[in-house]
Amino acid sequence: MRFNDYEDFQHIRFDKRPDGVLVATLNRPDTLNSANVRLHREFSELWEIIDNDDDVKVTVVTGAGKAFSAGGDLEMIEEMAKDYDAMLVQLKDAAAVVEKVIGARKPIVSAINGVAVGAGLAVALLADISIIGESVRLTDGHLRLGVAAGDHAVVAWPLLCGMAKSKYYLMTADFIDGRECERIGLVSMAVPDNQVLDKALAVAGRLANGSQLALQATKRALNGWYKQALPAFGESLALEMLCFLGGDVPEGVAAIREKRPPSFPSAAQKA
Fold first, then answer.
1. Are 112 and 29 in contact, with CB atoms under 8 Å apart?
2. How many CB atoms lie under 10 A from the CB of residue 32?
3. In this structure, is residue 109 part of a structural domain?
4. What is the reported pLDDT for 74?
5. In whole angstroms, what is the distance from residue 153 CA to residue 143 CA?
6. CA–CA separation, 131 vs 181, rounded Å?
7. What is the distance between the alpha carbons of residues 72 and 25, in angstroms, rounded to a whole number?
8. CATH code for position 45
């Protein structure tokens, strides 16, 4: 599956603005923009298309409806737990999402307009500037499912908010609201919920009006810090996928569907 143009995307809607800002809207509102197999691939293919588009200077990523992205589609997760080949596909795509967002040449601004979890959260937090609604909640969420935090967290969270906060929020999978995200440095800025997209567009417009050479060079240099963490990311992603082969994921999925606390088989085993 290769993408050559914006028309090849099924679950991302595009709006080119005259100031050089492209608004990319995750567009599965009926599922809170959860990442199915197709959208997961689109997350990784998007950035090369944008980098090759001379009309685009800055991208704003947001979600349609009430959510930014509610994480991985449960049907996709269930398939990964049963089908080794399906898991390998997602291993490749999950790695590509992180590596290509970090390697993208042009600035990315995320407008986190609603709940953000899992694969969608990777795009939201790896964006160069992240703007969230004050009451919006996010969580990495992997531990709720019974797998290691592997999508992006090991790359980004320790640099953004420090090791102590990273370990607490990744190991408990607690939700964090926008105000607390800003306070601990996980996002760039928290604003009233109804101002998220407007603020993101204003910031993006300001960037689009600046020196593109300087912006892109500064982004590339700063993202060198993320690139130093890629070996740890590779290990975290491999361990996440290894967890899919264990017995906890079916219980994690069932608990999410039934909206109850999980009772993981590994929790009943002796240490």
1. no
2. 21
3. yes
4. 83
5. 12
6. 10
7. 17
8. 3.90.226.10
Q: CA 140 to CA 121: how far, in whole Å? A: 7
Burial class from Cβ neighbours inside 10 Å (0-12, 13-18, 19+) for residue 72 reads: buried
**Domain total in the chain:** 1
Quick check: is 33 in a domain? yes
Sign of CA dihedral 202, 208, 211, 213: positive
Instruction: Determine the Cα angle at 78 with ends 73 and 84, to 5°.
Output: 115
Q: Write the pLDDT tens digit of every residue in 109-124.
A: 999 999 999 888 999 9
In-domain check, residue 202 = no
Residue 2 above 80 pLDDT? no
Is residue 45 classed as helix, strand or coil in its secondary structure? helix
E-assigned strand segments in the chain? 12-16, 21-26, 58-63, 67-70, 108-112, 115-117, 129-133, 137-139, 176-177, 189-191
What letter does residue 35 receive in the DSSP assignment? Answer: B
In a domain, 198, yes or no: no
* Encoded amino acid at 12, one letter: I
- Residue range 101-107: mean pLDDT, rounded: 97
Break the chain down into helix, strand, coil percent, rounded to 5. Answer: 55, 15, 30
Contacts of 64 (CB under 8 A, 6+ apart): 13, 25, 26, 27, 28, 29, 33
Q: Which domain holds residue 189?
A: 6-193+209-268
Q: What is the CA radius of gyration of the chain?
A: 18
H or E stretch at 167: helix 163-172
The angle at the Cα of 126, spanning 136 to 143, to the nearest 5 degrees, equals: 65
Q: What CA–CA distance (Å, rounded) separates 112 from 231?
A: 28
